Amino acid sequence: MADSPISMQLDARAVDVLSKVTTATLTTLLLKKGLRNVWMRGTRPLRPGQPRLVGRAFTLRFVPAREDLATPESWSSPISTRAAIEAMPEGCIAVVDAMGVTDAGIFGDILCARMARKGIAALVTDGVVRDVAGVLGTGLPVWCRGAAAPPSVAGLTFVAWQQPIGCGGVAVFPGDVVVVDDDGAVLVPANLLDEMLVAAPEQERLEGWIMGEVERGAALPGLYPPNAENKARYEVWKAK
User: Closest Cα partner for 115 from 131, 92, 133?
Assistant: First the structure.
């Protein structure tokens, strides 16, 4: 599998900045850039209340099961989920295209334990996991559609890693940035990362000020979004 030309290591500043920005804020900012389809459908936290996490996308792809390929023996193939996990760098977020299949678990407790041991930040998929109690016990943060007992080969064939995929209806390229929280998983295209590192904290600051005004009894028209008068008031507040 060819490596992405983008470094898979996200610098500490980017992680620090984006870990303080909600996925809701990011979707708003990306909408202003014309990107409407960045929230991966079906990616819900397996354990609510997990911390917000940020990392480069390491992609994996399944296709529909074919009986001569989707077998337990395929788990020992050079092209397997096991081999893909060993290729994952520390700090990445594994993003798995499971085609929305919900009756075959893509990973179970042993694979998730290995990912946790390697320092993988999180697993995100539009499919499901199996051995859910064991997966939770590994401590690996997971965003998915839920759980199912059957193994992946009951419904899926693993074919590739570090290629463009579709996860929850969103195009994900290796090295894109993924942010996950209780609202789900949001994609930040790699080429927009620097812009988001500037715009996102400012948007959070502005919305914090607006919330304070609302709590003091201010009406919404002209405040959210702010008109010229309120923008000026905000700038005065920010300068203090």
Answer: 92
Across-strand partners of 147?
129
- The domain limits of the chain are 12-190, 195-239
Joined together, the tokens standing for residue 43 give: 């990616």
> From CA 63, how far away is CA 70, in angstroms rounded?
10
Q: Pairing between strand 142-144 and 156-161? A: unpaired
CA–CA distance, 75 with 82 (Å, rounded to integer): 7
pLDDT digits (tens, 9 = 90+) for 166-212: 999 999 999 999 999 999 999 999 999 999 999 999 999 999 999 99
- Which residue from 74, 62, 161, 136 is spatially nearest to 103, judged by alpha carbons? 62
CB environment 73-102: b (16+ within 10 A), e (fewer): ebeeeeeebbebbeebeebbbbbbbbbbbb
Polymer length of the chain: 240
- Contacts (Cβ under 8 Å, ≥6 apart) of 225: none
- Which among 168, 192, 196 is positioned nearest to 22, based on CA atoms? 196
Could you please state the CATH topology (level 3) that the domain comprising 12-190 is classified under. Glucose Oxidase; domain 1 (3.50.30)
